[in-house]
Write a structure and sequence with these properties.
Low-confidence stretches: none
Structural class: alpha/beta
Order of helices and strands: EHHEHEHEHEHHHHHH
Strand order of the largest sheet: 2-3-4-1-5
Number of helices: 11
Mean pLDDT: 85
Distance between the termini: 51 Å
Oligomer: single chain
Strand content: 5-15%
Helix content: 40-55%
């Protein structure tokens, strides 16, 4: 879309937490405002790219809708939209947790999305796409972010562990990746917690007890107790797991 100059004025990035919605929104902002752009490969060294990466670009405004969800904030955006970008090509609004915006505030935003100036791009990031009103959604291009592939998650954590000088087996990393359920942020938080608790060598048993997960040997005892019709043993297993 960037290569063919078919740039929309509104985007919705939706999907579970920790899958890179806000990060990709910032990358898109760099693509659009790079000195060499719009380009799908921003240079990363011009003042626009550097400032957007650092989060202090004057023409890329990030708004956390969880704490700025009211009609007054949206009216402020609507006023701001009328003015040309100070320096860059586009004035980009990245609205995080967009589903938290109130109904009245969405209505205030709707007029801007209906007739946007050519220099404005809105990127709404949300974990609850179904809560974005259809009047807003129909004026935006919608991209759904999927959970990150398990093997990619493990490979990424292996790279981080190597860089940090942490000893972690593939089994340890698999347990941590499983705890993240496809969310990079959740998996990295669990890895951080594991390093804080276990030091520079991560032991799989310690990690399992830390994260409250159990291994397959626990599950093997369940069918064994069923085959023996041993309800007492079954209750013991439940007690152990709890």
């Amino acid at each position: 879309a960037i290569e063919s100059r078919r740039i929309a004025h509104g985007y919705i990035f939706s999907g579970q937490r920790g899958t890179g919605k806000t990060t990709v929104a910032r990358i898109l902002a760099r693509c659009l405002n790079c000195v060499q752009g719009p380009t799908p490969a921003p240079c990363g060294v011009c003042s626009s790219c550097v400032e957007i990466s650092a989060g202090n670009a004057v023409d890329v405004i990030e708004i956390d809708a969880a704490s700025n969800r009211g009609i007054n904030e949206m009216r402020e955006i609507r006023e701001n939209v009328r003015y040309h970008p100070s320096r860059d090509r586009y004035k980009i609004f990245i609205i995080d947790e967009a589903h938290q915006i109130t109904k009245e505030a969405f209505n205030a935003l709707l007029k801007t999305l209906e007739e946007p100036p050519e220099w404005v791009v809105f990127i709404l990031c949300t974990t609850e796409a179904n809560e974005i009103p259809s009047t807003i959604a129909s004026r935006c291009q919608h991209f759904t972010f999927r959970s990150v592939d398990f093997a990619e998650l493990v490979a990424r954590m292996r790279y981080i562990a190597e860089q940090e000088g942490i000893e972690a087996s593939d089994e340890v990393l698999s347990v941590i990746a499983q705890a993240g359920e496809g969310s990079v942020r959740d998996s990295l938080s669990a890895l951080d917690q594991a390093i804080a608790c276990c030091g520079r060598t991560l032991d799989v048993q310690n990690i399992r007890s830390l994260l409250g997960v159990f291994d397959l040997t626990s599950l093997e005892t369940v069918p064994a107790a069923i085959c023996e019709e041993n309800s007492g043993r079954m209750l013991e297993i439940v007690g152990e797991l709890e």
